[in-house]
Design a protein that fits this description.
By secondary structure, the protein is α+β, with helices and mostly antiparallel strands. The protein has helices at 115-119, 121-124, 212-215, 225-243, 250-263, 273-284; strands at residues 16-17, 22-25, 30-31, 35-38, 41-44, 48-53, 56-61, 73-82, 85-89, 96-99, 130-138, 144-147, 154-155, 159-163, 176-178, 183-187, 192-197. The protein has a domain at 16-61: OB fold (Dihydrolipoamide Acetyltransferase, E2P), CATH 2.40.50.
Length: 287
């Protein structure tokens, strides 16, 4: 698929390139990520969608590891507890690091972390725990440095994890989404999505604005049958849209849920080919 200027080609629409496929002349365009120059052609080095910014041609891989940026919201899983730090699976090329100095301690008081705090690290997070955090910086070896110094961040409970390609998560004004059905979503930019029971903001605050027992608790709250079914339905919708490579946004997920309620009483039936194709067709009409 040559994308020379002579051809009438709309770059605003996704076009898929294959590895080794000539894209255009290196005389007319500059090569970007996912491409290389061979003789006088710009050639795709990965399978993905072609994007153009002025004279710069790039190919965004369909499936790739998450590339973090400072300020990104991510959902991760604790893989190891080390001295003064936790290692976190963030779907990146290497585990992220959450330092003990980058978390809120019980009482909500900002102070230097003591040896006694280090001895209690597993009371805060232990292997297998899921958490939501923000990318704070990068270490010299490229590892991601995280922090949870906010009431919005911390250990995750009362829900389930859905994993999708990170390329499908669009950057939104807020990645904390509360659906009308009583389900909360956290869209991690690393492709990890947390689907959970809705929790009002003041439920996590104690007398001093920080309830450590709730934030670091390992016990789920009681979840009624209706909420469990809603969580399952939303999770199934996300899996179907991801399987069809549909980018995920708050408006698309809300519209998809409303459509599924009207057309499929049983959430499991959404996986049937006809229902899945109809759902994807409806969602694709939404910007």
């Amino acid at each position: 698929m040559n994308v020379d200027e002579e051809e009438v080609m709309d770059f605003t629409k996704s076009r898929v390139a294959l590895p080794g496929e000539p894209l255009t002349s290196s005389q007319a365009y500059m090569r970007g990520h996912g491409t290389y120059v061979d003789t006088e052609d710009v050639v795709a080095s990965v399978a993905g969608t072609i994007e153009r910014v002025n004279k710069l041609i790039t190919v965004k891989a369909i499936r790739t590891r998450y590339n973090a940026e400072v300020g990104d919201l991510i959902v991760g899983r604790i893989t190891e507890v080390q001295p003064k730090r936790w290692k976190v699976d963030a779907n990146a090329r290497q585990d992220a690091i959450l330092m003990l100095s980058s978390v809120n301690l019980p009482g909500g008081v900002q102070r230097r972390k003591l040896e006694s705090d280090e001895l209690q690290m597993r009371n805060f997070f232990e292997e297998g725990d899921l958490l939501v955090a923000e990318v704070q910086a990068f270490f010299s070896d490229g590892a991601i440095s995280l922090h949870t110094r906010s009431l919005k961040y911390g250990k995750l409970r009362n829900g389930q994890l859905v994993v999708v390609p990170s390329a499908l998560i669009r950057r939104l004004k807020s990645h904390f989404i509360a659906l009308a059905c009583g389900v909360d979503l956290i869209l991690g930019l690393n492709g990890y999505i947390w689907v959970s029971k809705h929790v009002r903001e003041n439920e996590q605050e104690g007398e001093e604005g920080f309830d450590a027992e709730a934030v670091y608790s390992n016990m789920n709250d009681d979840i009624d049958l209706g909420t469990r079914q809603a969580i399952t339905r939303v999770s199934n919708i996300i899996k179907i849209l991801a399987a069809h490579f549909v980018p995920l946004t708050d408006t698309r997920l809300a519209e998809a849920y409303e459509w599924s309620i009207e057309h499929e009483e049983d959430a499991q039936n959404l996986f049937q080919q006809e229902s899945a194709e109809q759902l994807v067709a409806v969602v694709n009409t939404i910007a």
